[in-house]
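User: I'm putting together notes for a lab meeting next week and I want to include a structural view of one of the chains we've been expressing. I don't have a solved structure, so I'd like a prediction I can at least talk through. The sequence is below, exactly as it appears in our construct file.
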Amino acid sequence: MSDSTPHGLHEGPAVGQDEWVARHAERTLLRGGPLGTLEQRLRRVPWWAWLILFIAAFSLLPVFEQSGYVRRVSFDTVLYMLLALGLNVVVGWGGLLDLGYVAFYGIGAYAYALLDSDKFGIHLPTLVAVPLIVAIGAIVGLLLGLPSRRLTGDYLAIVTLFFLQLFQTITTNGDSINGHNVTGGPNGILRVDPLHLFGHDLAVQHGGVFAVSYLYVALGVFAIVFVALRYVNESRTGRAWRSLREDPLAAEAMGMPVNWLKLLSFGFGAAVAALTGTLFASLSASVFPLTFYFVLLITVYTMVILGGSGSQAGVVAGALIVGPMLEVLRDASKSRVVFFVALVGGLVLFSRRSRGLGIVALATLAVGFALHAILGAIDSSWIAGEHQGGFAGVVDHWVVAPAHLARWIQPASYIGLIAVVLLVTLVQGRLRLVLLVPTLYLAAFVWENVMLAKPEPARYIVLGLMLIALMILRPNGLLGERRVEII
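Assistant: Thanks for the context. Below is the predicted structure for the 487-residue chain, given as structure tokens.
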């Protein structure tokens, strides 16, 4: 699902494009060694081939994995991918800071619950209800976009955040609107109908295990939305959105309908979010106000920023990373695996040369084993702590784990880790590679001795650390567009 178009590095820019400058940036930013060669070859694969491969691989997941939990996490991940695609339209393409985006997700869910449940005895056919809800979401998005015609930045963020708070207030207190119970209040709406397609209700469970029907429907919706947004992005509207994002004043001076473009971006994003809400409500068979709170908004923004704002493939990759990772981090025994995979991934992004990457990794391992042996010889209580879960056998002889963690160690390790991370960002060349060794080991020490004891807050701390590291090492995200400015 790469967003790049395959081409050779021939001489001479295309007329009307900064193609030569962009290619020069590619030459200077490409990774060296085997990883660089692999990266160049992957760039030549067309986006539609990546999409087909991705859908096929995701479709085979239920075949090889019979766990209902894994299937449900996979479905939730597809919902995250859809939400990230919709937010990317507003933030990544339109350049508008929308903090009310989750409200459209809730509008779609509540609209489906009101139109297909026992709440008011309305049971619309799915093929009628879903397009109607998408249209409602788009219209509400256009209405919210009206203030954006003259608001930007912080002011627009405040208005959209107020819209989210307004939605939460209405849904929470909607059990008494002029004496009528509309939203069910904190108790929500129950007994929501499942999707009804081809004369059958989609089963949520089969034999007590999460059924695959909803997962396949969600994948089909994802494919349609991805392709539709891809063509919109490559159209005149998409190019106008990018111009609006880069410089609204210049876009307006060139005769572009800036106000209409802002409304369109809000409308498209809201429609995708509302569509996603229908999938969620039909599967859950209930909707509650607490589902659509600010934490979900931060999570979706994390996916967009991590993957690369403005890149469809990037935001999908961000959802694929963040969604399952949040579930895995609920289990302290599995979270270690995620942490060390993220640590290695950050090291790969940090080092553009494969040789430097290997040296840092080997040096970190050597320092850890040596320090563990030295402290164990001095005082065995320093290594008497137990490690449980994935990689416990390896970590037990590498990371120092005191039997009783002194109170001063926790704040000291936090401060030390922050200090070395900041120092790494300030230096260059070989000194940076040298400082990476204690940084990586200290990060492992803090994780093993402090964070694993508090898995719930650790989930979001890990997300925050990932974003901080990414903004330092790769500000445009994993697959974000590299922007070239000519001054």
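A couple of points you could mention at the meeting. The first strand starts at residue 189 and ends at 190. The mean pLDDT is 83.

User: Perfect, that's what I needed.
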